[in-house]
Design a protein that fits this description.
About 15% of the residues have low confidence. The strands form ten sheets. This protein has a four-stranded antiparallel sheet, with no helix packed on it. It has a four-stranded antiparallel sheet with strand order 2-3-4-5, with no helix packed on it. It contains one helix and 34 strands. It is 1% helix and 39% strand. It has 413 residues and is mainly β. The protein has one domain: YVTN repeat-like/Quinoprotein amine dehydrogenase (Methylamine Dehydrogenase, Chain H). The longest helix is centred in the C-terminal third of the chain and has 4 residues.
Length: 413
Amino acid sequence: MNLPCILRQFPIPSSLFVLTLVVSAFAQTPQLQMSHTAEDLRGVSVVSRQIAWASGTHGTYLRTTDGGRNWTPAQVPEAATLDFRGVIAFSADEAFLMSSGPGDQSRIYHTSDAGKHWQLQFKNTSPQGFFDSIAFWDPTHGIVLGDPIADEAGKLKFELLQTNDGQSWRPIPSSRLPEALPGEGAFAASNSCIAILVEMWKSRASAPHMDNQWKSGPSGPRQSPNNERALAPAESDRNIWFATGGKVARVFHSADRGETWQVFDTPVQQGPDSAGIFSIAFRDPLHGVIAGGDYKRPKADGPNLAFTEDGGKTWTLSQIHPQAYFSAVTYDLEVNRTAIGQHTEDGDKKIRIRRTTPERLFIIGPDFVFDFRPPSNPTRINGKRGTGFNAASPNGHGGALIVGPKGAIASIP
């Protein structure tokens, strides 16, 4: 679902606490980084403490290999008219870019040499097509979400593409997908309206050249001697969630990588074409968050934030007030890694995820970030005057990297 260039309640169990958020300015500010571009940025992907990529308007992508001290912007050849709303990176050399736009303006590119060469892997040929979000389990297995298009029977179905080799893309047959409702779409606001689990880590010691080998020990990540770690999606996990907006705000879930689907209603603001769920994230197969609102009314108070404890089947509105329009939400993976506990029940040997603490989330508003560490009140982190925010990517060492309009890049420890 398109957005203008300038922009495109946490179920807290009553047994724990209920809070009212007083929205006020705090002393904290994000640590701004010099991007050396004035393009609007909506895509960001942290690979490790040192390596990250970002993407934006006019075919722009950026890369840092020194922890953000130096960002190098560049433009994909013959892509000056494209808006790269999504980037997924796996090393200093390898990254995928997704552009959003009507018809053939929605494309997928790949580089394996730090942008010296880009391969156009897919161009949308449907006039009604519009890509919204891209995600990867590993460098060869990924998925792209697009707005609904009519199938051969004339039924509207969300467009979903998958790759199993990191090179060619095929659609998930529309016969497997539930119908989209009239006026329902997805938002290409922050490359986060589709979610998979990110809970494993890779060691640079295991892949000194390409950082493409994933390693994880039974009790947590194995670390290289220099303590360098990087994010890696949970390759064995088969969950996919995506969130919608417009006339309805729903969550679609597949537990088998797109073979079968269920759809669940949510209480998040919906109705206008500009309202709905803009971002979805899960910390484990059961616990997740959705955030959104109405981007045409960015200061309107909710309901814009909700949480699930059953994998997305039911959603509970946050008790935080006032709220605002939220374009993105992500978990702090270093903090939450210790919150993911498993135990085996007697009898049927069923594995169950239990809710433990600590927990931390980043909720992205137009010009602020909520640093949320339940059960404490969220801290509102304001940007410098004139600084806006669109999207976020968690850092494997804790914190997040956020990007926004006019080349804004900032980190939160």
